[in-house]
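call fold(seq) -> tokens
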Amino acid sequence: MSTLAHDTPQEGRGPGLTISYAAIKRGALWLLAASSGIALVEPSPYEIVFLLVLFVFALTGIRFSQKLLPLALLLLGYNIGGIISLIPWMDEGPSVRFTAVSVYLMVTAVFVAGIMSQDAAGRLETLRRGYLFAAWVAGLAALLGYFDIAGLGEIFTLYGRASGTFKDPNVLGPYLALPIVYVLQRILTGQTRMLRGLVMLSIPLTALFFTFSRGAWGVLVASTALMIALTFLTAPNTAARARIVGMSAAALGAAIAALLVALSFEEVRAVFEMRASLVQDYDEGVTGRFGNQWRAIPMLLEAPNGFGPLRFRWHFNQADPHNVYINAFASYGWLGGLFWLGLMAATCYVGWRLVFRRGATQLHAIAIWSVLFVTILQGLQIDTDHWRHLYLLMGLIWGLAALGPDSEAESAPVQPRPLRTTT
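ret:
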């Protein structure tokens, strides 16, 4: 523990600006969440800011509960499998970087889980606000690109779909789901007024629509429905439940009206009708997405070490399996694949228990778990293993679960020891 953690105000000192350690840490976390929406360059700002956050928290120490051991061991086993699968391809730079990113994401998940042991409610609120800011930045970029304002279409779109500050609209869309679900929940529970909430939703929700990502649409609808159901079931009284039902009906009506307005434009309607189909041309056939997945399974059953990182493309006519569970066995071998399955199963067990636990962080847990659970299911449709926000949400769920019912009170903001700087 750093000596800074034990600093106390001294008598006889002149007036100064009081900066608490809690405030510094929250500021660092806000910056981390706010930087998570820029993924056009590598290393991304998120990677750089994470190192800063790690340094800030390391100064005063991080407490890791023994309850986080399963998370750490499952992620470690998954990455050991990836490292073993990498051995034959150590001379390939992209494969090495792929494995290094996996290890880095493991560290971020365990770190985020660990920092929930103190001031959880305050840190969650800080992350929520930072994430919403990032969603606005990414969403604005996506809309500027989609409508080709100031010639930004080439930078912020892909295949005529809004991608914003992400390389792929299929990643931008799911990324925007959490802040949207959060705002909707706050409207339903009366924490945010309707008009203010609609303003907060406007940019992220519009940007998500214009990604024309089937997966993102599905994540948003399913996550929202799950959040409403869980918020309703855990509401404290009948009046709160009645409000949830009424506001949900109003929100549904507003969403339908907005969709009808958007579809009144022929160009938008044409793309929407094409993308709304459950199966696209590239999904069908023996050499389509689903055909390649089925053909990969017997091949992987004969390959304990998998194909190797990023080697799926060498066996089939597509870059990725578009299924995180098949990719786990293809890029991380049998060891990594089994540990990934175990990690997802354990996370589901932890998450479903957490959302029904009363406490100061329950509403946060419901919003986060609603998106995370649907994202886990979405892994059947897309490769999610390198989505930074997946590891962020997973770390938050495990960290909150580690608090335990008896330590829920500790999640409230604590009285920090101040650090004084003389003005």
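The chain is about 65% helix and 5% strand.
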